[in-house]
Amino acid sequence: MDYSSISSFLEKFKNTLFKKETIYKDIISTISKEVGVVLNIDDIKILGTEIKIKGSPVVKNEILIRKNKILELLKNIQPNSIFTDIN
């Protein structure tokens, strides 16, 4: 039985999952450096080009104040990212 086709199929999922995890880690580290708040992966949701943040109003306001800088830094770290907004 030839398992190479199954292996290549599963490899695509593995790459997608690692890419997603890397994007989340980049978002968390950028916000941490810029705002000084450490978020969990569960606090972030990506909806298309928008990053949704769960947290207290104080944390969300600090992030929103520095939103443009955070988006700019994310663009430098992830050139292929298409994030346009943080809420």
What is the fold's blueprint, element by element?
Blueprint: H1 4-35, E1 44-47, E2 50-53, H2 57-65, H3 67-77, E3 85-86
Parallel strand pairs: 2-3
Antiparallel strand pairs: 1-2
Helix pairs in contact: 1-3
Sum this structure up briefly.
This protein is mainly alpha-helical.
Description:
By secondary structure, the protein is mainly α. 60% of the residues lie in helices and 11% in strands. It has 3 helices and 3 strands. The chain has helices at 4-35, 57-65, 67-77; strands spanning 44-47, 50-53, 85-86. The protein has a 3-stranded mixed beta sheet. Strand 1 and strand 2 form a beta hairpin. Helix 1 packs antiparallel against helix 3. The radius of gyration is 16 Å and the shape is elongated. The chain starts with a helix and ends with a strand. The model has no long low-confidence stretch (mean pLDDT 87).
